[in-house]
Amino acid sequence: MLARPNRAGLIAALDTHDPATAERWATALAPHVGVVKIGLELFVACGPATVARIARHRPVFLDLKFHDIPNTVAGAVRSACALRPAMLTIHAAGGPAMIATARAAAEDAAGPDRPAILAVTVLTSTDAATLAETGVAGGPAQQVLRLARLALDAGADGLVCAPPEVPLIRAAHGAQPLLVVPGVRPAGSARGDQSRVATPEEAVAAGADWLVIGRPITAATDPVAAAAAIAATLAA
User: Fold this and answer.
1) Among residues of the chain, what percentage have pLDDT more than 90?
2) What's the mean pLDDT when you consider all of the chain?
3) pLDDT at 3
4) Where is 130: in which H helix or E strand?
5) Which residue among 96, 113, 141, 179 sits deepest, i.e. has the most Cβ atoms within 10 Å of its Cβ?
6) What three-state secondary structure class fits 174?
7) Is 9-235 CATH 3.40.50.2300?
8) How many Cα atoms sit within 13 Å of 178 on the Cβ side?
9) What is the DSSP string of 176-216?
10) Domain spans in the chain, listed from the N-terminal domain onward
């Protein structure tokens, strides 16, 4: 598995449907980021071959958020391991059997070189009203803590959570879980569709291991300069 960074690391989200654009970003940003993220948009548009091309530049966080019956997720994890990602996401809401099966499938397929299995708790675009509409009471913080315990007990290596929940998870589970944190916005950046956000400095202070940042980098006039500036704040 990918080693935990000494300080918080930067993950650049390559959210595009165009493989040439994604590879251009990966090449240019490589000096300033530790990992690059391939999500649904790029993977659905371009398929597994793109993962191999992008991985030549930086380790890949394959953010496909598997959520299905355990047998189906196990098969998907085995297939994903053939692409040698450093990190792989599943939904914590899939339940303990699905999570445990995903972990076992990764170990079976890749052994010690398996990806870190990260359980997505509550999406950063989700607020209390959205949770209530889906029948979940108590708000994001309560649901994140509920899913975090479930996922870690079932064998997840770490969690994907919004910045406000990072200190709550650290208080409940200590330093061991790997925390990958999207919803990070440099001061002055637009929130976009994110509802639970923080600046890079705030996320690091809270205890994040990896910060996932997309549009503030890729939509910048100079993406390389934007990534370098963020990376400099993490190294300070």
Assistant:
1) 88
2) 94
3) 80
4) helix 128-133
5) 179
6) coil
7) no
8) 24
9) -SEEEE--B--TT---TT-SS-B-HHHHHHHT-SEEEE-HH
10) 9-235
